[in-house]
Design goal:
This protein has about 800 residues and is of the alpha+beta class. The chain has 20 helices and 36 strands. Mean pLDDT is about 95; it is low at about 1-15.
């Protein structure tokens, strides 16, 4: 029965080959293959004679909880604001650096803020190879989440398979030789620092240690256990800190890991029971067969992955190793199957690095090879962690969104202290960076660290999960979080002197600078456009949530009134959307951040049909910014161009994002691209580019947003289809209001579609197609709008199905 189940599982969803593969071992982390179960991760290198797997555990964070608020910062705010009103931005920024940043080192290396760190490495040294290596192939199959290396050594066939099992919460590395005595190797666990390795039973190793905490001495502790099982016989012995395997035909290597993280983001964490947890995990898993482990792993993984399938017809260079395929695509384009693979790879990465009960995917998702990861591997709140989750709802991975919503909830209590310290305000606030220790203060430099709407942007994600799930119990739980953020901003908003608009301040447009009339560069300002867009959205969503729950009527009215007084989107003298209240000159016209287009995406305040003048100003902004940029920036631009309905330009950005690069350092001048294993190159590796581009591809094929205020959400079918994507299909995308969408197209036009209400009560749906259509609801035809042949408004009942035909 078990074999039959495994066979059935392997067939489901496996009709479209989805693999990243190499014809040689990995020369670097950026060409190794990632596996993960949301908590444990591994990177397979696949060397025939000296192999390794980089190991990760998502709570491996140095640092500790620390209150880095300046408790009297609010006392200097009035002076800073007065300087800004007088146009003395440079002087205001100087005062901020002295009085309005975090108290202490903030996110600098070595302080209590900490960083995400590698767990260690599993190393394998093979002996007794019988001949030269041939027929080498190393691949990651996205259909079953298995990384596999196969080759022939002399006349002996070898295979190695790596999984990160969700059901069993272990990594399993299976080694198999066609020679029943052909596996002879040593196995070890290593870490560059703060690690002790010792024997753990007859067939095991244990690695443990305590990370740095910035000096206080109560840092996180971790443990990893390794267990070897030889199903077909052979011997294992402990020798000088390693395990020696001899005369085996098959070996299963189990790796468990856990930490005593007990920070504010609670869930599937072990606290003081972490050591016992690692023992239980490896004990339980090692009693199972490989077939049983594999079947359970694939079934659990495909429950999520198989919800969406994408086929783009045309040229397919899947026969080429992925590095060569990237090179060929960069030179000649015309490989739509690679673009489809890239989207599904993004979904694979989110499933693998973000599961309910765990910490959110960080700047590198789950995978890191360093002790000191770039930018601490943290959660940047001025776009990066948000971009990680843009795909969660639209590509039908709603459960994977929940680690982020848990992080947001954990910031409320510390954020209340920050709101009081800096703004003498009620409610809560978070600025531009955070970590599992719930850091909410401004950063250590006003030039970038004073962005004040991180908490407002995070609340967008709380609302998005509600819009897609229609889960009232969830909305009731998170509404106080949204309300608290809104209360803080209501209290801290200022009246700017020229128009009387309500604005934030002091703040900045993330990481960007402008030039004052006297030629000096400045960052600090009042009411940057992004802030006003975020608050316009936050106030609307919070008021709508209150009305949905039947609470806080007066508070909702206050939000409505304040929302009307926020500074509007402005079109500058050059026709571009203004980034600041004044039409300042750009210091860096091609800057990677385009934050003032937040209202275009992920927001929906700027739409092609509802606000065509602002949409045109956004288009001019993007043209001036240019296409070439860092990896995540190009991913965001894919989303922008999709929202503007320009699929060809969106695909141009996707093509640039898939440019092969070997850049590993912090060299922005070289621009972004993709590493050989399809990891996004910021550079260095930053996973938000993968996630953002996946969301962008989904936006090219289906959108659901409000084209105009007080309308139902418009479900747009093929709103930005590139010319080169002549025909194909997408199944299982999720629109707002709990609707699942399947689309088929041919010759660049819609062929058919199905809309299914998966959650929530009956309600209106406004649908837009790229050609004239007819719609029937559960088999009953409905009248169409003769003024706009591609636009149909109808009521979709609970569990109802709408069939769309051309």
């Amino acid at each position: 029965m078990l074999l039959l189940l495994a066979s059935v599982i392997m067939k489901i969803g496996s009709t479209v080959p989805l693999s990243i593969w190499f014809d040689k071992p990995a020369a670097s982390f950026q060409s190794s293959l990632p596996v993960g179960n949301g908590r444990l991760g591994g990177m397979m290198f696949g060397d025939p004679t000296s192999d390794k797997v980089v190991l990760n555990e998502i709570s491996m964070w140095s640092g500790r909880p620390a209150d880095q608020n300046r408790v009297d910062a609010w006392k200097s705010r009035e002076h800073i604001v007065e300087l800004l009103k007088q146009g003395k931005n440079v002087e205001a920024e100087s005062l901020m650096n002295a009085t309005f940043t975090c108290d202490g080192p903030g996110g600098q290396e070595g302080g209590p803020y900490g960083c995400y760190q590698v767990l260690g490495e599993l190393r394998l040294k093979f002996d007794g190879e019988t001949g030269p290596v041939s027929n080498y192939r190393r691949e990651l199959d996205l259909n079953d989440a298995v990384a596999k290396t196969t080759f022939t050594s002399g006349s002996v066939s070898q295979s190695r398979e790596l999984i990160a099992s969700g059901p069993d919460q272990v990594l399993v590395y299976r080694l198999k030789s066609s020679d029943r005595h052909g596996l002879n190797l040593s196995v070890s666990l290593t870490r560059a620092e703060r690690a002790k390795v010792e024997q753990d039973g007859d067939h095991g190793l244990m690695m443990s240690g305590r990370l740095s905490d910035g000096g206080k001495g109560d840092a996180l502790s971790y443990m990893s256990r390794l267990r070897v099982v030889l199903p077909g016989g052979g011997t294992v012995r402990f020798d000088s800190g390693q395990l020696a395997i001899s005369n085996a035909g098959e070996a299963l290597i189990f790796v468990s890991a856990a930490t005593d993280y007990s920070g504010p983001v609670m869930g599937r964490h072990f606290g003081n029971a972490y050591a016992e947890a690692t023992l239980q995990q490896v004990d339980k898993a090692s009693r199972k067969s490989w077939k049983s482990l594999l079947a359970a792993h694939i079934k659990e993984y495909r429950r999520l992955f198989n919800r969406v399938s994408l086929r783009i017809d045309g040229n397919n260079r899947a026969n080429l190793p992925t590095p060569q395929r990237l090179e060929e695509f960069w030179k000649n384009g015309n490989d739509p199957a690679l673009e489809a693979l890239y989207m599904q790879f993004g979904r694979y990465l989110l499933i693998s690095s973000s599961r309910e009960g765990g910490l959110p995917a960080n700047l590198q998702g789950l995978w890191a090879e360093e002790i000191q990861t770039p930018w601490n591997g943290d959660y940047h709140l001025d776009i990066n962690v948000q971009m990680n989750y843009w795909l969660a709802e639209s590509t039908n991975l709603s459960e994977c969104h929940l680690p982020l919503t848990s992080l947001i909830e954990s910031l409320v209590k510390p954020g209340e202290r920050t709101a009081k310290a800096y703004y003498s305000a009620p409610g809560w606030i978070a600025h531009v960076i955070t970590n599992p220790w719930a850091f909410t203060a401004p950063g250590e430099s006003a030039s970038w660290g004073s962005t004040c709407t991180g908490s407002g942007w995070l609340c967008w994600h709380l609302w998005e999960h509600w819009l897609h799930s229609n889960d009232r119990a969830y909305l009731k739980r998170v509404y106080p979080v949204m309300k608290g953020a809104s209360e803080c901003f209501l209290s801290m908003l200022l009246e700017e002197p020229k128009h009387g608009w309500l604005v934030t301040g002091p703040s900045n447009s993330p990481e960007n600078a402008f030039r004052l009339p006297d030629g000096r560069a400045a960052h600090t300002c009042l009411g940057p456009t992004m802030d006003e867009q975020i608050l316009r959205e936050l106030f609307e969503n919070t008021a709508d949530a209150a009305r949905e729950l039947g609470v806080d009527t007066d508070f909702a009215s206050k939000l409505d009134s304040a929302r009307k007084r926020l500074a509007p989107n402005q079109i500058g003298p050059d026709g571009r959307l203004q980034e600041w209240l004044e039409p300042y000159q750009d210091v860096e016209v091609h800057h990677r951040h385009t934050s003032h287009l937040y209202g275009l995406f992920p927001g929906d305040q700027i739409t092609k049909y509802g606000t065509p003048d602002l949409a045109e100003a956004a288009r001019k902004t993007l043209i001036t910014r240019g296409d070439e940029s860092t990896g995540w920036s190009m991913a965001w631009k894919i989303c922008f161009w999709a929202r503007l309905g320009d699929g060809d330009h969106a695909e141009t950005l996707l093509h640039r994002l898939l440019k092969p690069t070997g850049a590993k350092g912090y060299n922005y001048a070289n621009g972004g691209g993709s590493y050989p294993n399809l990891f996004d190159a910021h550079p260095p590796f930053q996973i938000d580019g993968n996630f953002g581009a996946t969301a962008g591809i989904a936006e090219m094929l289906m959108q659901s947003n409000r084209e105009r205020p007080n309308e139902p959400y418009t479900v747009s079918l093929l709103p930005a289809l590139p010319t080169s994507w002549k025909s194909g299909s997408i199944k299982g995308l999720r629109a707002r209001d709990g609707i699942e969408v399947d689309i088929d197209w041919a010759n660049g036009k819609l062929a058919s579609a199905t809309l299914r209400r998966k959650t929530g009560p009956a309600g209106p749906v406004r649908m837009r197609a790229n050609c004239a259509v007819t719609v029937s609801i559960d088999g009953q035809p409905i009248p169409t709008d003769t003024n706009e042949p591609g636009v149909v408004t109808f009521t979709l009942p609970t569990n109802g199905v709408a069939t769309v035909k051309v």
